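ok so heres the complex, two chains, lmk if somethin looks off
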Amino acid sequence: DSGVTQTPKHLITATGQRVTLRCSPRSGDLSVYWYQQSLDQGLQFLIQYYNGEERAKGNILERFSAQQFPDLHSELNLSSLELGDSALYFCASSAFSGPSYEQYFGPGTRLTVT
Amino acid sequence: AQTVTQSQPEMSVQEAETVTLSCTYDTSESDYYLFWYKQPPSRQMILVIRQEAYKQQNATENRFSVNFQKAAKSFSLKISDSQLGDAAMYFCAYRSDGNTGNQFYFGTGTSLTVIP
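and the predicted structre for the whole thing:
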């Protein structure tokens, strides 16, 4: 158990819908990362937040957005969902922002778009 | 953009033997970090080992070690005395430490099978 929690574990929704994935980092960790793992594209870094502010942005679509709240939990919002958005979405947290700090991954949220 | 290449989609090793997983990357940066992550069937991502580019000494963690060749941009993972629990997907990853905003780049993974 990494100490990072993600809800829900599974999510099934239809095309065109909007969903919100939630992540609670390890106690004391200030940085949160979001990743997408799909079958055909491997693991993709989406976005990083540090202490409530966006720190780095990767291959995140404009239909997706994220935020980190004052209590440090984070949400990833996916809108206008398409079949290709079906994937495993991971959240990870680290104590601070730099790459020398180990990232701890949550168990992931499995999103299925039908 | 940085790229990470894992040229071996699948590998197998006999239990107790040694296996090496390959990874190459492309970058113009001088400061960066390299990682190997393990993803067992549970899908949990687990950090196996980390290497700082400025360190010449290869990182080791128990039965896991790397062969880091900075000039060749190569970062292979050696697993010694392979165990059944080592069976998993292994991902090589690159993380910058500079102006590109600390982005992560992952390879496509190598699926390791351990044969009893």
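quick notes: The interface with chain A takes residues 32-33, 42-47, 50, 52, 91, 93, 95-97, 101-109 of chain B (CB under 8 Å). thats all i got rn
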